[in-house]
């Protein structure tokens, strides 16, 4: 009687472990799909792939401009902010080009090097932009990214999704997939050993 209870409990444990492993594999596949349709296109479509050194030529703050209303956005997303324009000397070609924070900055407003998030306190936005401008004047030389193909003559300070960030995004689903497969394999081995022991 006790042996049957132990066998039943063992089968239940194996079933639960097998469901856990299959669930981990399914979740990792969903994460792979989500990363593949969100992050990977941004990474592959970016033309600013080569790192070089930029030297600041001038950093000016112009009068307030309005954040352009992107397609599908609401009118409430339009807000005025000081326009920071940073011009740098591209070491790779020696050209004088405009610097943008990321690829998204160029799409949101090609007139400004930095586009802040919408904040209710305009003084905070102004102080942040002044701090960024002073940092550019203080640190004259820094790494930046440019388009080696020449389709974009401007440069960006940092990529939205660099290679390390993409690898880090794939790390967690890979670990989950590996753990799920390991659990399934261990359950199958345990079942095989149990059947072999019962047969002997």
Automatic annotation (TrEMBL):
Annotated keywords: Glycoprotein, Ion channel, Ion transport, Membrane, Transmembrane, Transmembrane helix, Transport
Chief localisation class: membrane
Alphabetical list of InterPro entries matching this protein: K_chnl_Ca-activ_BK_bsu (IPR003930)
PROSITE patterns in the cross-refs: PROKAR_LIPOPROTEIN
GO molecular function: calcium-activated potassium channel activity; potassium channel regulator activity
Location in the cell: Membrane
Cellular component, GO annotation: voltage-gated potassium channel complex
Signal peptide start and end residues: none
Membrane topology: Multi-pass membrane protein
A single GO BP: detection of calcium ion
Segments traversing the membrane: 20-43, 166-187
Sequence similarity: Belongs to the KCNMB (TC 8.A.14.1) family. KCNMB1 subfamily.
PANTHER family reported in the protein's UniProt record: CALCIUM-ACTIVATED POTASSIUM CHANNEL SUBUNIT BETA, CALCIUM-ACTIVATED POTASSIUM CHANNEL SUBUNIT BETA-1
Protein's UniProt name: KCMB1 protein
Species of the source: Nicator chloris
Organism lineage: Eukaryota, Metazoa, Chordata, Craniata, Vertebrata
């Amino acid at each position: 009687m006790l042996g049957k209870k132990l066998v039943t409990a063992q089968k239940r444990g194996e079933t639960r472990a097998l469901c856990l492993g299959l669930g981990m594999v399914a979740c990792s596949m969903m994460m792979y799909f989500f990363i593949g349709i969100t992050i990977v296109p941004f990474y592959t479509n970016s033309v600013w792939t080569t790192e070089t050194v930029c030297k600041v030529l001038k950093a000016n703050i112009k009068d307030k401009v309005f954040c352009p209303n992107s397609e599908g956005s609401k009118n409430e997303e339009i807000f005025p902010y000081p326009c920071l324009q940073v011009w740098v000397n591209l070491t790779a070609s020696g050209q004088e080009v405009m610097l943008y924070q990321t690829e998204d900055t160029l799409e949101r407003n090609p007139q400004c090097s930095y586009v802040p998030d919408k904040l209710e306190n305009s003084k905070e936005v102004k102080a942040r932009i002044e701090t960024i401008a002073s940092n550019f004047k203080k640190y004259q030389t820094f790494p930046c990214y440019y388009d080696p193909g020449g389709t974009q003559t401007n440069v960006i300070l940092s990529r939205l999704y660099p290679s390390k960030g993409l690898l880090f995004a794939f790390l967690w689903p890979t670990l989950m997939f590996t753990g799920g497969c390991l659990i399934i394999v261990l359950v199958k081995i345990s079942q095989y050993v149990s059947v072999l022991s019962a047969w002997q």
